[in-house]
Write a structure and sequence with these properties.
- By secondary structure, this protein is α/β, with parallel strands linked by helices.
- It has a domain of 233 residues: 3-Layer(aba) Sandwich (Rossmann fold), CATH 3.40.50.
- It has 11 helices and 11 strands.
- It has a 9-stranded mixed β-sheet, sandwiched between helices.
- Helix 4 crosses helix 5.
- It starts with 10 loop residues before the first helix and ends with a helix.
- 36% of the residues are buried.
Length: 360
């Protein structure tokens, strides 16, 4: 058989592939599986359907605006769904470009203790081991550097080796007789991936932006080959060019740092902004002219913007919308986000910085 035939679909083959794809997507949705958007009100009403296998969703933000925390929240939400479904083949893969594995898990230990109201437990090693026992059953595999293995000259966690590691996870499980369905890959974050000699070798112009571009294309290829849905954090430019205004600084679609290829080729794009990073605490600000919205700058407030959704809703088959923003409330103890309203920010009990320190 000619390999090029794999690129060609007759009319009946195209119809068959599409109906199978829609049926599989609907089955996953009905079972609560897949990368469902972690804020159910937005997912249902906008809508934001689950990220389907082979698709890549980017979550961008400037430094210290919560993109990594939101990625962790989405990852934890997906893990809860998988554990509730109790299917042994379902796993999540977390790719760490910045944090060491131990650093990531320490944060997870603290948040798990908060969620279980066992914060006092982690003050002792016995308590830490107890909370760690809960995390040990969560089906998340981690790829990245660690303190424990630093002396073993582990290979760099560049994109070439990340790709090898993902398929090695599947291979190792198969060797144990375990089936594997990768329900999600989470990467934090694309611009922080280490230099990749295998990619640079083929680049006459060895600019960092070109590697970021190639890393993103490799990530898309991985998503398609497994297939699996991917959520990838992305650093926004420090000077935004596409924000809606000075009082609504959610990055725009083309505000990804290093390369416009991310904006052009991602399937979905969301961006985050925490007003406290750019505006004085407790200030009431207004955005918009015809129907202005007012909100108060408080610690817990973040805005999320849907900049792009490519494709269709597998339930209604309608094209997906984009260009809408929502206020979110952050629980810094548990790392969870929930839908908020601008009026609730205005009604918040506001304390000065001195009062908040005294309360602690």
């Amino acid at each position: 058989m000619n390999q090029i035939d794999d690129l060609i679909y007759s009319p009946d083959q195209a119809v068959s592939a599409t109906t199978n794809y829609i049926q599989a997507a609907r089955d996953n949705i009905s079972k609560g599986l897949g990368l469902q958007f972690p804020i159910p009100q937005i997912a249902a009403e906008y809508p934001v359907p689950p990220i389907l296998p082979g698709k890549v969703c980017t979550v961008q933000g400037k430094s210290h605006n919560g993109k990594s925390q939101f990625l962790d929240f989405w990852k934890s939400d997906t893990a809860k769904r998988l554990m509730s479904a109790n299917r042994n083949e379902d796993i999540i893969i977390s790719v760490l470009a910045e944090d060491m594995v131990e650093e990531q898990m320490a944060v997870q230990l603290m948040r798990e203790a908060e969620r279980r109201n066992e914060r006092g437990q982690i003050e002792t090693m016995d308590g830490i081991l107890m909370v760690a026992g809960h995390l040990g059953s969560v089906p998340i595999y981690y790829i990245g550097a660690s303190i424990e293995r630093a002396s073993e000259k582990a290979p760099s966690a560049n994109m070439t080796n990340v790709e090898r590691a993902i398929f090695r996870i599947i291979e190792r499980r198969a060797n144990k007789g375990q089936k594997t369905t990768v329900q999600g890959i989470f990467m934090d974050y694309i611009q922080a991936m280490p230099l990749d000699p295998a990619l640079l070798r083929d680049m006459p112009d060895k600019k960092r932006a070109l590697q970021v571009r190639e890393d993103f294309f490799t990530l898309r290829n991985i998503a398609a080959r497994i297939p699996a849905p991917v959520v990838c954090a992305s650093q926004s430019k420090q000077t935004l060019e596409n924000a809606a205004g000075p009082n609504m600084q959610t990055p725009g679609l083309y505000d990804h740092q290093e390369t416009s290829a991310i904006a052009q080729h991602t399937d979905s794009d969301f961006s985050l902004w925490m007003p406290k990073t750019s505006h004085p605490f407790n200030e009431i600000v207004s955005h918009g002219k015809d129907k202005p919205i007012e909100f108060r700058v408080v610690d817990e407030l973040a805005w999320i913007s849907c900049n792009k959704q490519r494709g269709f809703d597998p339930v209604t088959l309608q094209r997906l919308p984009a260009n809408k923003k929502w206020p979110l409330k952050i629980d810094f103890k548990t790392g969870e986000y929930s839908l908020w309203t601008t009026q609730e920010t205005l009604d918040s009990v506001i304390k000065t910085i001195a009062q908040r320190k005294e309360a602690k």
